[in-house]
Amino acid sequence: MADRYLSFTGTAPGRFLTRRLGLPQPAALRRWSPERPDLDGGLLHLTAGKTDLDLPPVLARAGLGEDTDGRPAAVVLDAGGIRDTEGLADVHAALHPVVRSVAASGRIVVLGAPLDPADHHQAAAQQALEGFTRSLGKEIGRGRTVNLVRLTDAAAAESTLSFLLSPKSAYVSGQVIEVGEHRPVTPHDPLRPLAGRTALVTGAARGIGEAVAETLARDGAQVVVLDVPGAEQDARRVAERIGGTALPLDITAPDAGTRIAEALPGGLDVLVHNAGITRDRRLANMSAERWIQVLEVNLASVLRTTDTLLARGTLKRGGRVVATASIAGIAGNTGQTNYAAAKAGVTGLVRSLAPRTLTEHGVTVNAVAPGFIETKMTAAVPLFIREAGRRMNSLGQGGLPADVAETIAWLAHPASGAVNGQVVRVCGQSLLGA
Question: Where does the Ketoreductase domain lie (predicted)?
Fold first, then answer.
């Protein structure tokens, strides 16, 4: 369903009226397309405090040239060297003069360092960057985003910086992403980084899952489109369009993992857990059946399938597991105790499994947590609740399935091996749940 309010605020009368009434003024977001793959404008690289990062070569490969006209499309502030409160003055000094000049739908990326448990002054200063980043994201407006990346190795963060400095991250803001020191794998074809890799997406016959399948196929993956037998016709339609294959299967079946492994004798490089259902009721009115159904599809099947595919060696070394969480699992939601419990469980899975899986199998485990995404499901939500969902974020609008898909594609990228155990919200920086 079209966002008529967003369209109205893009007109001169709409801008005038909403400004006079103090209403939200969302800006149309600049998203990726083959014709316009990069942001329009240059990059401004700033430093606060001393730095050991070798950023220029990495930033040069992000697709943006140096800013020359004082209207940067992106600003990268390297603040990883700040170790005390006094150093935070450098953050203000660096960004205060330029923040208004960042182009519409522009990007600000603050680079920080991991918190040092042996130095509470450094930890305090670096944690301060998180509060700063989230607050700036909520006030900057005009479709611009602000994110914080904690890192120690610029090369390991190349795929992350390329994503955050591109139109692909249009609906990702206010996020804190930890990047480890795993050396990146450079794909042979930067335009098709998943070429030669096999990806399986559950719940891929429609909605967000369909967008994920399309995006991974665009990036070169051979995609297996998995959905329940009742959606087999739609799954085959998607698979045919993207050059993939369909796998009709109930992901909650006890032997689902085994059947996936048997269907993929050559192994699997990317596993995307997207299948999910809702059965909303307040707890006092919720039957045990509704509770069990949601936990089984959204959490138990994810645990069982992942365990089986890891144990059987179906997930190859260098592989990626990306699960779908939700901001409901972070902030809670009325009428969704079952759904929120399941999605919070996905977060627990990621944080526990990620370090062990990387060490034992060479596989990363991450999650995306969508907020209000424009789908057929949200189009059926009552008008006033739907409008609240759209406006209750820093960007003042709902996201698109492509926003979730692009985030998953970044996490699935061969060069994203240093991103592990992260839960990245794709919510336009929802005003709920931080």
Answer: 197-371
